[in-house]
Amino acid sequence: MSDSRPAAGTSVTTGEPSTGGAVTPPRPAIVRWFRIVAVAEALTWLALLIGMAIKYIPEPNVDSAVRYPGAAHGAVFVLYLLVTVATAVALRWSKGLTVVALLASIPPFGTVIFEIWANRTGRLDVRDARTASTPTPRK
Question: What pLDDT, on a 0 to 100 scale, did the predictor assign at position 31?
Answer without folding.
Answer: 94
